[in-house]
């Protein structure tokens, strides 16, 4: 059964996704506890829509448009009648015989948790499908079409990110995490890395939290090439662990380096090593950056140290982190969100069906 858990964790981590079809009749799981102002607020349905398999099948061209696979599931790409692209993550039919009450509870808990989150720098859940004949468990998210932050930082074929866009991505993430930690109760991410941060066409950050299994194999490598790190850092879902992970991400954004050694799986060891470095951060800046502001680099370096303090009680809170980034970058919360979001059109179509 641990293999099933590991595979479930893997598939949901790599998927970033969207919405369903116009003819859906919705049933409410749980009301949104927060909202977005303006037109989007008016268009929102008051809960997470339960979608029909047949409607998702139409949107995904009879489930023929496969864009990703794993041993336990498939990712399909589809299109709404409005032209908005979608993707649907489906658990394999073969799992119906091994789908336990525990897995079902995790599936429902993920829906319940994500239904509380509604932020423009987050990959928002906007639908799900649950049917028995045939066995169907699907999660439907909005779609971020421009790859992951990891790809843009480390894959040569991906579009290069200059200094300004990198700061905009980091600041958008900070505002999103501040919002999530401010919910009642707080919502903390189970995994935060450059592989779980997706980008829109205008390079706005969209954080995802698509895993729903806590059981992992410590020898299994993440999508970004590193192994699972200490359970207190990755599997703890506390705001303090999110702050630590955010500090690691800031280091990766500034230096262009993967902060975890494949031979050293301990995040705490990495932090201790980093905090002992005497070399100024400006000497570690990503060599592919044509230009950057040295004063911003040094200010971000100090923020990183506060985020990765081994003592979680001494770490800055996310509201403090976002405020310091706002002072460094001069970027407001409105400046860092996607300018054109397909989420609005998807939700408008559902609400008017």
Automatic annotation (TrEMBL):
Q: Name one GO molecular function term.
A: ATP binding
Q: What is the protein's name according to its record?
A: Protein kinase domain-containing protein
- Protein kinase domain residues are 61-336
Q: Where is this region: Disordered?
A: 210-234
Xref: InterPro entries: Kinase-like_dom_sf, Prot_kinase_dom, Ser-Thr/Tyr_kinase_cat_dom
Which residues are listed as membrane-spanning?
none
Composition-biased stretches, type Basic and acidic residues, lie in 210-230
Task: Give the primary localization class.
Answer: membrane
Cellular compartments annotated: Endomembrane system
What's in the GO CC field? endomembrane system
UniProt superkingdom: Eukaryota
Q: How does it sit in the membrane?
A: Single-pass type I membrane protein
Point out the signal peptide segment: 1-25
Entry keyword set: Membrane, Signal, Transmembrane, Transmembrane helix
What PROSITE patterns does UniProt report for this protein, alphabetically? PROTEIN_KINASE_DOM
Q: Which organism is it from?
A: Vicia faba
């Amino acid at each position: 059964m641990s293999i099933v858990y590991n595979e479930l964790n893997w598939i949901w981590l790599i998927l970033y996704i969207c919405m369903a079809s116009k003819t859906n009749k919705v049933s409410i799981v749980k009301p949104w506890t927060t909202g977005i102002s303006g037109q989007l607020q008016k268009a929102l349905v008051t809960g997470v829509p339960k979608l029909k398999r047949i409607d998702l099948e139409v949107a995904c061209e009879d489930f023929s448009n496969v864009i990703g696979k794993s041993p336990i599931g498939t990712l399909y790409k589809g299109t709404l009648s409005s032209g908005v692209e979608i993707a649907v993550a489906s658990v394999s039919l073969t799992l119906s015989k091994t789908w336990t009450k525990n897995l079902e509870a995790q599936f429902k808990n993920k829906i319940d948790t994500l239904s509380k989150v509604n932020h423009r720098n987050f990959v928002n859940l906007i639908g799900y499908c649950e049917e028995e004949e045939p066995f169907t468990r699907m999660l439907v998210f909005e779609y971020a079409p421009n790859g992951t932050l990891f790809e843009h930082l480390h894959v040569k074929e991906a579009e290069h990110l200059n200094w300004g866009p990198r700061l905009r991505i980091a600041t958008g993430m900070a505002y999103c995490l501040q919002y999530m930690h401010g919910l009642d109760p707080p919502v903390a991410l189970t995994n935060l890395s450059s592989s779980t941060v997706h980008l829109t066409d205008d390079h706005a950050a969209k954080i995802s939290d698509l895993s729903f299994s806590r059981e992992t194999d410590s020898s299994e490598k993440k999508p970004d090439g590193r192994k699972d790190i200490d359970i207190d850092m990755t599997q703890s879902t506390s705001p303090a662990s999110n702050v630590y992970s955010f500090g690691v991400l800031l280091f990766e954004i500034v230096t262009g380096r993967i902060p975890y050694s494949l031979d050293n799986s301990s995040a705490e060891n990495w932090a201790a090593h980093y905090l002992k470095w005497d070399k100024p951060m400006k000497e570690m800046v990503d060599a592919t950056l044509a230009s950057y502001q040295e004063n911003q680099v040094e200010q971000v370096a100090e923020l990183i140290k506060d985020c990765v303090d081994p003592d979680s009680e001494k770490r800055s809170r996310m509201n403090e982190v976002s405020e310091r980034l706002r002072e460094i970058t001069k970027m407001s919360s409105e400046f860092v969100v996607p300018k054109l979001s397909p989420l609005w059109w998807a939700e408008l179509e559902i609400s008017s069906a």
